[in-house]
Amino acid sequence: MEQSLIDATERYAETIRNTDVYKNYQEQLFLIRQNPEKYQRVNEFRRKNYELQQSDGRDMDERIEALAEELERFREDPVVDDFFRAELAFCRMMQEVNLRVTEAIDFDMEFPL
Predict the structure, then answer these.
(1) How many whole angstroms separate alpha carbon 102 and alpha carbon 32?
(2) Which domain of life does this protein belong to (predicted)?
């Protein structure tokens, strides 16, 4: 890889680390890690959510509803809720940035039929 791209990537990463969104995410991650049981439950929920998104669609309505109910109960804990809010904000920021990069370099994402 070209050194100029490596250097730009490092500056890009540093810019991300300096955002309020990233700093808040790191703060909330630190706080939730202080309670290993909560952190484990958060990771189990994230795994279930990922698996649901990757599944083949069988019983989707029931599985989505069950996961939504679990999340609702889980987020009654302010530490968990704050973490999930911070994580979502960070993920949305990264999605937006990646979309802008993709658009800026004119990356053709359409597939020929």
Answers:
(1) 33
(2) Bacteria
| Alpha carbon distances (Å) from 79 to 13, 16, 87, 89, 100 | 27, 23, 12, 15, 32
Type of residue at 17: R
Q: Where are the domains of the chain?
A: 17-102
pLDDT in tens, 49-107: 898 888 877 778 888 898 899 889 989 999 999 999 999 999 999 999 999 998 899 87
Neighbours of 24 (CB within 10 A): 16
Cβ contact 51:66 at 8 Å: no
Q: What is the DSSP string of 53-108?
A: HHS-STTHHHHHHHHHHHHHHHTTSHHHHHHHHHHHHHHHHHHHHHHHHHHHTT--
pLDDT digit string, tens, across residues 19-46: 999 999 999 999 999 999 999 999 999 9
CA distance 75 to 42: 10
Question: Tokens 């039929």 correspond to what residue?
Answer: 113
